[in-house]
Specification:
Shape: globular
Number of helices: 11
Number of domains: 2
CATH topology of the largest domain: Antithrombin, Chain I, domain 2
Largest sheet: 9 strands, mixed
C-alpha cells in the first residue's frame, strides 16, 4: 500500500503529551543524533502507535536517529560509489534503497546478516528497533507537510506456491505496509514483470513506468519500494527571469542552459571549498540543499568527503543571509543495476548463490538482482521526483560572513532533497550536465 498524506493526518498515540520544554529537549536530542531522523514534535512525545488494531510501541527517539543516520550514511556512500562518470548525472533515493534493504534484512541470518549490517551502517540495532523506526519514519514523512506530496509504497511479490516464512511476510506487511501478492515467475515471467511494473508506474505517478525489464527463471521473491515527491518552492522563481547562461562541464566544455534567478534572504553556508544553499518547499518542512564546489572540477573531491558526519556538521551551520542564487532548470532520469556496486561496498555474501543465508525467509535464497531508477524535474515552480527499487531473490537450487553572497550554479553540483525538521534525505544526486535528460 501507499503511505501518503491525508487531510488532518496524525498518528494515533496513547499517553499524555509532556510540557513544551520536555518536547523541545526531546527534539534537540534527536537532532543531535542525526540530520536524518524524521521526527515531529507531536509524535516524538508519544508512547504507543496504533496500526490496524495492533499496538506498536513507539521507537526510542535516539534509535530513530540512529536508523535515519544509517540510511543517509549508506545513501551518501552509495552515491559516491555510483557517481564515477563525469559525463552522466547520478540521482538516487537513499530512503528508497535503504527501505527495500531493511525489508530484506529481516530475512538474512548469520554472516550474511552481519555483512549487510556493516554495509547498511546498522551497527548493533536490533530487527525490532529497525522495523519500528522505519514504520514511524515512513508515516511521519507522509504527513510532514500538507503542502508537499510525499508518498512511499512497498510490496512483496512471491512465486505462487513458494513457502516463504510467514513471520517474514508478517514483518513486511505490518512494519512496511508491504502489499503481498502471488505471481508466477516461473511459468509467466513476462506477466509477472508486467504486474510489478504496473504497480511501480502507479506508485510513482507514472514517472517510472518500467523498473523490471526481465525476470530470471530462478526468481522466487521480489521486494519493491517506490518514493514519490512533489513540492513547490516556498519562494518561487519568476519565469521571466530565467535566461540561458553557460554551464561549465568538468571536461572544460560548456552548454547554454536555462538558468533561474532569485534574490532575497536564504539559509546559506560556505567555506573555502564550497558554497551551499537551502531552498525550502511548501511550509518549509522539506528543502533542497545545493552544494557547489568552488572549483569547476571540484565535485569529485567534494563527494569523497561526503558522509553522514560532515553532512550533519555542515547543515547545522546554515544561517540566514541576503544574496542571489542562479540555479539551472533540469529534468533527468537515472537507472542502474546495483549488484556490483553493493558487492564493492561490502555486501558480498548476499549475492553469493552458494554462501548467502536468507534462511529466515526460506533456505536456498540469494539476491540475484537489485534495480534502481529515478526521475527528477526542477523548474521555477518547484521539484517533482520519483524513485523505485527492486530486490530479486533467486533460488540457489536452480541457478559564512556578513557580506551579501552570490551563488551561480554554473558547473557540476551536488543536491539533496530533505525533510527539514530533521533533515531526512529522500533524494540525493550530482548534476554534471543539466541538459542531459537520461542516465545509465
Amino acid at each position: 500500500m501507499n503511505v501518503k498524506p491525508t487531510a488532518g493526518f496524525t498518528l494515533p498515540w496513547a499517553g499524555v503529551t509532556p510540557a513544551p520544554s520536555a518536547k523541545t529537549k526531546m527534539l534537540a536530542l534527536i537532532r543531535k543524533f542525526t540530520v536524518a531522523a524524521f521526527v515531529i514534535a507531536s509524535i516524538a512525545t508519544s508512547c504507543v502507535l496504533v496500526k490496524a488494531g495492533a499496538r506498536i510501541p513507539a521507537p526510542d527517539p535516539a534509535v530513530t536517529g540512529r536508523v535515519s543516520a544509517a540510511t543517509d550514511d549508506f545513501g551518501f556512500r552509495l552515491l559516491n560509489a555510483l557517481a564515477k562518470d563525469p559525463r552522466q548525472n547520478t540521482i538516487i533515493s537513499p530512503l528508497g534503497v535503504a527501505t527495500a534493504f531493511a525489508m530484506a534484512y529481516n530475512g538474512a541470518a548469520g554472516a550474511t546478516k552481519a555483512e549487510m549490517s556493516r554495509t547498511l551502517a546498522l551497527g548493533s540495532l536490533s530487527d525490532e528497533e529497525i522495523n519500528r523506526a522505519n514504520y514511524y519514519l515512513m508515516h511521519t514523512l507522509a504527513g510532514a507537510d500538507p503542502a508537499v506530496q510525499t508518498e512511499i509504497a512497498n510490496a512483496l511479490w512471491v512465486q505462487k506456491d513458494f513457502p516463504i516464512n510467514p513471520n517474514f511476510r508478517t514483518v513486511c506487511e505490518s512494519f512496511y505496509d508491504a502489499r503481498a501478492a502471488s505471481l508466477d515467475f516461473i511459468g509467466d515471467p513476462m506477466g509477472a514483470a508486467a504486474e510489478i511494473n504496473s504497480w511501480v508506474d502507479k506508485s510513482t505517478r507514472h514517472r517510472i513506468p518500467v523498473l523490471v525489464a526481465r525476470i530470471t527463471p530462478d526468481t522466487r521473491l521480489m521486494l519493491t519500494d517506490a518514493v514519490y515527491f512533489k513540492g513547490t518552492w516556498t519562494s518561487k522563481f519568476k519565469e521571466e527571469q530565467t535566461r540561458p547562461r553557460p554551464f561549465h562541464l568538468m571536461g572544460g566544455d560548456s552548454h547554454q542552459t536555462p538558468m533561474m534567478e532569485q534574490t532575497g534572504d536564504f539559509s546559506y553556508f560556505d567555506n573555502q571549498n564550497f558554497q551551499a544553499i537551502r531552498l525550502p518547499y511548501g511550509n518549509k518542512r522539506y528543502a533542497m540543499y545545493v552544494f557547489l564546489a568552488r572549483k569547476a572540477a571540484g565535485l569529485p573531491e567534494f563527494l569523497h568527503t561526503l558522509d553522514e558526519t560532515p553532512w550533519t556538521q555542515w547543515t547545522s551551520q546554515f544561517a540566514q543571509k541576503s544574496g542571489e542564487i542562479v540555479l539551472p532548470k533540469f529534468e533527468t532520469t537515472y537507472s542502474r543495476k546495483l549488484n556490483d556496486t553493493l558487492v564493492e561496498m561490502g555486501m558480498r555474501l548476499a549475492f553469493d548463490r552458494r554462501a548467502a543465508d536468507f534462511s529466515r525467509i526460506d533456505r536456498g535464497l540469494y539476491i540475484n538482482d537489485v534495480e534502481h531508477k529515478t526521475w527528477i524535474k526542477v523548474d521555477e515552480k518547484g521539484t517533482e521526483a520519483a524513485a523505485a527499487t527492486s530486490i530479486g531473490f533467486g533460488s540457489a537450487a536452480m541457478v559564512g560572513g556578513s557580506m551579501r553572497f552570490v551563488m551561480i550554479v554554473d558547473h557540476p553540483f551536488f543536491f539533496a532533497i530533505t525533510e527539514e525538521q530533521t533533515g531526512a534525505v529522500l533524494f540525493a544526486g550530482v548534476v554534471v550536465d543539466p541538459t542531459l535528460t537520461g542516465g545509465a
